[in-house]
Design brief:
It is a single chain. The chain has one domain (15-114): Rossmann fold, CATH 3.40.50. By secondary structure, the chain is of the alpha/beta class. It has a four-stranded parallel β-sheet with strand order 2-1-3-4, sandwiched between helices. Helix 1 packs antiparallel against helix 5 and helix 3 runs parallel beside helix 4 (90-102). The protein is 55% helix and 11% strand.
Length: 142
């Protein structure tokens, strides 16, 4: 098997990942981020939590580093979970637009049936991954 096919297959094997979108308080506890991250991870969902990186704001260009890191996390996510109050953050609104442009499903906590919608996103992602792995296996046999 060539290297490119191996990379594509390995990328597909990674777990479903959700980005937490919300208003980050650099000096605050950001408890909602950590509570949701823990709840998601207990269900086998990888959580990209930008609040875990707030220590960056204490280093010179830290706010810009945090924003850049948040965009990298978004690029490696399969869905976005918007925490209450995310509209209060200008960077949160920019990240929301970025996620929509990237085609990521955005689920807002508090919206009707948000938990089931997030699980439906995960199920669709798993079906797509299985189909891609099957197709890659068939290509490798040819």
């Amino acid at each position: 098997m060539d290297t490119m096919n191996t990379v594509k297959i390995e990328r597909r094997r990674r777990p479903f990942a959700v980005y937490l979108l919300g208003t980050i308080e650099p000096e605050g506890t950001n408890g909602a981020f950590f509570e949701e991250a823990e709840a998601l991870e207990s269900r086998g969902i990888v959580c990209h939590n930008p609040a875990a990186c707030t220590f960056l704001v204490h280093f010179g260009e830290g706010a810009e580093l945090l924003n850049d890191l948040s965009r990298v996390m978004l690029c490696h996510s399969d869905a976005v979970l918007a925490l209450p109050g995310w509209l209060n953050s200008p960077e949160g609104r920019r990240q929301h637009h970025f996620a929509i442009a990237k085609g990521l499903p955005v689920v807002t906590i508090g919206a009707a049936d948000w938990n089931n919608r997030l699980l439906a996103c995960k199920a669709a992602w798993e079906r797509d991954r299985e189909a891609a792995e099957k197709a890659a296996g068939e290509e490798a046999r040819e």
